[in-house]
Amino acid sequence: MLILASASPRRRELLSQIGVAYMVNPSTYEEGAPKKKDPAKFVLAQALGKANDVAAKYPGQWVLGADTVVALDGEILGKPKHEKDAMRMLQELSGRKHSVFTGVALVRGKKTYTKVVETKVWFRKLKDSEIKDYVHSGEPMDKAGAYGIQGKAAVFVEKVNGSYTNVVGLPLSQVYTLLQKAKIIG
């Protein structure tokens, strides 16, 4: 059975959506702060760190680790530290295009399959009152870039180029392909 090295309810919902049997064992991997302006390398390193952390406890089992970030002009926007930080991020994203990167690592022993997926997202110009109301809802506080496309922030999005499920937190088409390579599914 696949082990998901994440406590993310969104990742659990996405895996369940495609009928993959899994159990959850969140990683205790100490996530690093992005030091460089290379979001693709950063998310891949984080995903590998999470997957390897859990795989060490379950030899012989396949472990799926993932990490998602929002990047604006190459700079990574993490999860907001507080409401003011969330408002700042959303103001920066307002009326602009940004990228969402997810690194995925599937690990069992020395066998590793990885993928990084980038999706471009365009926000319409947001009113300050919309940002304030959204932040006060509490929804953006545990999300990269201070928004969840699958929630109330869906109305902020004008266009998506690439995987929608990547923006939610797990690029299903690419994950499915990795699961096939590993012969976890047919």
Automatic annotation (TrEMBL):
Localization (cell): Cytoplasm
At what residues does the UniProt record annotate the site feature described as Important for substrate specificity? 10, 68, 150
InterPro entries according to UniProt: ITPase-like_fam, Maf-like
Q: Which domain of life is it from?
A: Bacteria
GO MF annotation list: nucleoside triphosphate diphosphatase activity
- Required co-factors: a divalent metal cation
EC primary class: hydrolase
Q: List the catalytic residues.
A: 67
Q: Does the keyword Chloroplast apply?
A: no
Task: Please state the Enzyme Commission number of this protein.
Answer: 3.6.1.9
- Catalytic reaction equation(s): dTTP + H2O = dTMP + diphosphate + H(+); UTP + H2O = UMP + diphosphate + H(+)
Keyword rRNA processing part of the UniProt annotation: no
Q: Which terms in the GO cellular component ontology are assigned?
A: cytoplasm
Q: Tell me which Gene Ontology terms the entry assigns under biological process.
A: nucleotide metabolic process
Main location group = cytoplasm
- Sorted UniProt keywords: Cytoplasm, Hydrolase, Nucleotide metabolism
Which stretches are annotated as coiled coil? none
Instruction: State the similarity comment.
Output: Belongs to the Maf family. YhdE subfamily.
Report the protein's function. Answer: Nucleoside triphosphate pyrophosphatase that hydrolyzes dTTP and UTP. May have a dual role in cell division arrest and in preventing the incorporation of modified nucleotides into cellular nucleic acids.
Designated name of the protein: dTTP/UTP pyrophosphatase
Task: Look up and give the organism this protein is from.
Answer: Megasphaera hexanoica
